[in-house]
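task queued by scheduler; priority normal; single chain, no ligands, no partner chains; default sampling; output format set to structure tokens
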Amino acid sequence: MVRQEPEKADQVKIVVDTNIVFSAILNSGSRIALILISGKRHFSFYSCEFLLEELSLHRDKLRKLTKLPDAELDEVIGMVIKHITFINEAAIPSTMYRTTERLMKGNDLKDIPFVALAQELKAMLWTGDKVLSKGLAKSHADLVITATELFRRINELEG
């Protein structure tokens, strides 16, 4: 069973995948970054620890694309991931992985832990992967959420 941080009763649980975090790092002034940095009042963000490995693995690419020195890149990464609770994928029950694998036939296997975590937490998955979004929307439309929808919800709540 996955242990979760306590959350406010009115907060929506959101599982964030790697491409969302990378997008926020690459454009720290974007709507995506704004949601991750300031959306904690309305959303509880979660992700797999695998995402941290991906950040480390692709650090040189991130540095090259952002043209930021190491210290500034570290600062941006810290701001983007500060409000994300990272959960070890091993804590997700194997039955959830099997269910997710069947659900995701034909999609990138790297996405399975994120989708499995979203299902385990009864959360929504925030992904920029259009193929994954379309595939999941066909059978689980309530599982995926977009940046546009998140931004709209923030505006309604803060309206």
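post-processing summary
- The chain has a mean pLDDT of 88.
- The longest helix spans residues 70-81.
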